[in-house]
Amino acid sequence: MLDINDIAKSRDEALLQNKVQPVFMLGIDIYQLQASSGSVIWWYTQVAWAHDHIITVCYFEALMDTIPSFMTAQHRHCDDSFIATESAVSASNWIQADSQWSIFTTDLDSHLQQEETILFPAFEQATGMTMGPTQVMRTEHAQMRQLIAEMTQALSAQNKDQFLGLSETLMILMQQHNMKEEQMLYPMTQTHLPDAAAVLEQVKAY
User: Fold this and answer.
1) Mean predicted confidence (pLDDT) in 79-99
2) What is the CATH number of domain 66-205?
């Protein structure tokens, strides 16, 4: 259960306390609150803060029950560990860099497999499009994996310049890739799948 003490009394107070991080999702500004209990709560920025906070927050927590919101949250999670790796490498903190890189690569690989094994096939079956957006995404996944393999070698050799050079390329690729998924593919999948909720549960359980 979310303790009401975890929730700041106002949006401004929450921002000042660094409890809330702005997130861009599907052209909508939302906020993510990490409660001390570990719960992640999402809500729309146009929430009337004069309303009861528990009711408002719990209502918008339902946003996580859609394919776009869940998969987008995974993107943001991977972004965090990727940026942390870059920072550690820049500071020549190789122990921290190895730790964050392991988190990033593990989480990203799981995310890509969820898409390739469950989400993309479901979209293709529902729409009949096998050579459309999912094919483009698979190609970009392969490009990401190649870059990650090269970056892993650079990290193992503690080659800062090579790692950071490759990381810039990967960051641009991921940003463009994620935008296409978040603004096009995920919403299309949510709309076209007759059993979107069931597919999402398969993704979560993978």
Assistant:
1) 97
2) 1.20.120.520
